[in-house]
Amino acid sequence: MDFLDTKTPKLKSKTHELLEDSVQSMKKDQKVFIVGLCGGQGGGKTKLSKVLSKNIPNSAIIEERNFFKTLTTKRKLSAGDEPLVGEFGGYSKNRKLLLVELSNPKSYDYVKLYNTLKKLISGETVIINKFDEEEGRYTDETIEINPEKISLVIVEGYFLFKNKEVRELINLKIFNEVDDDVRLSRLLINENKFLNNNPVAFKYFFLIYEKYIKFAYDQYIAPTKQFAKIILPNYTINEDQEQTIEGDDTLELLITNLKNVASRKNK
User: Fold this and answer.
1) CA-to-CA distance for 261 and 219, rounded, in angstroms?
2) Does residue 199 lie in a domain region?
3) Parallel, antiparallel, or unpaired: how do β-strands 172-177 and 137-145 relate?
4) Residue 41's domain spans which residues?
5) Percent helix / strand / coil, the chain, rounded to 5
6) How do the pLDDT tens digits run along the chain, 267 residues long?
7) Of 213, 258, 189, whose CA–CA distance to 48 is shortest?
8) Of the four listed, 70, 142, 200, 212, which is most buried by Cβ atoms within 10 Å?
9) How far apart are CA 121 and CA 150, in angstroms?
10) What is the rounded CA–CA span in Å between residue 201 and residue 11?
11) Is residue 7 one of the residues assigned to a domain?
């Protein structure tokens, strides 16, 4: 594994080598190149994947959340699940339960994700239903990915590298490593719309973060860093970078190399 630090003199050639190795790992008849982007909640994976896709022609994004198993049955609550019981300061039970389930690798259908990637690799078009993480439900919106038009697919999620079958289908694995306090602050900003600035609700959010979200990162996500070819240490996408990558050596380097991969698959 290599840390993508653009101040390293030999970085450009090293990054090129890493991607060349990843290209060589592709099967002869593989129709799309699969990039896996993994990291903890609040790490900025979604923004990063959107910036990558926007700047790489013939690319598409698959989000792990779109393979979430919906809360169709009531979760059995125990005494240890006190933060989830009832509504505290307007913080609903369903919202708290969704946060917990999103932090559990068993909440995702990796068989379905595996089959989706296998279809793309073999050249089949796939249609994916979109899951609204804020509403906690699937919408009527779908995503269609056709390998005739798409040559590079970015798969982003929390537990991608934990599942061996899915992991082995990914040609280039990137881990977005962000400090706990940064991820927590981002989560808190995003979650505030559900907390209603209520001190009691904040209290229960922090309980859920410590017991479930941070536990999931330490137990399931961080250990999978060992499978990554590239690690982005404390990398952050700001609002301006969603519009332009000019002046960002890390992004420019990564995108340039991935563009070359995508263009080769189109020939």
Assistant:
1) 33
2) yes
3) unpaired
4) 2-149+160-265
5) 50, 20, 35
6) 444 444 444 445 555 566 666 666 666 678 999 999 999 999 989 989 998 999 999 999 999 999 998 765 445 555 556 666 666 667 787 888 888 889 999 999 999 999 999 999 999 999 999 999 887 889 999 999 999 999 999 999 999 999 999 999 999 999 999 999 999 999 998 898 888 888 888 988 999 999 999 999 999 999 999 999 999 887 666 655 454 555 567 778 888 888 888 776 555
7) 258
8) 212
9) 11
10) 46
11) yes
86 is a domain residue:
yes
CATH number at residue 208: 3.40.50.300
Strand 152-157's sheet: what is its strand order? 2-3, 230-233, 172-177, 33-38, 152-157, 59-63
Instruction: Give the other-Cβ count within 10 Å of 162's Cβ.
Output: 19
Work out how many domains the chain is built from and give that number: 1
* Residue 155 parent element (H or E): strand 152-157
212 in a domain, yes or no? yes
Over residues 76-92, the pLDDT tens digits come to 555 556 666 666 667 78
Measured CA to CA, the distance from residue 196 to residue 198 in angstroms comes to 5
Q: Which residue has the tokens 């479930």?
A: 212
Pairing of strands 152-157, 59-63: parallel
DSSP string, 111-137: HHHHHHHHHHHTT--EEEEEEETTTTE
Which residue do the tokens 């989000």 mark?
63
What's the distance, CA 213 to chain centroid?
15
Can you say how many angstroms the Cα of residue 100 is from the centroid of all Cα atoms in its chain?
17
Please name the residue that has the structure tokens 């609204």: 132
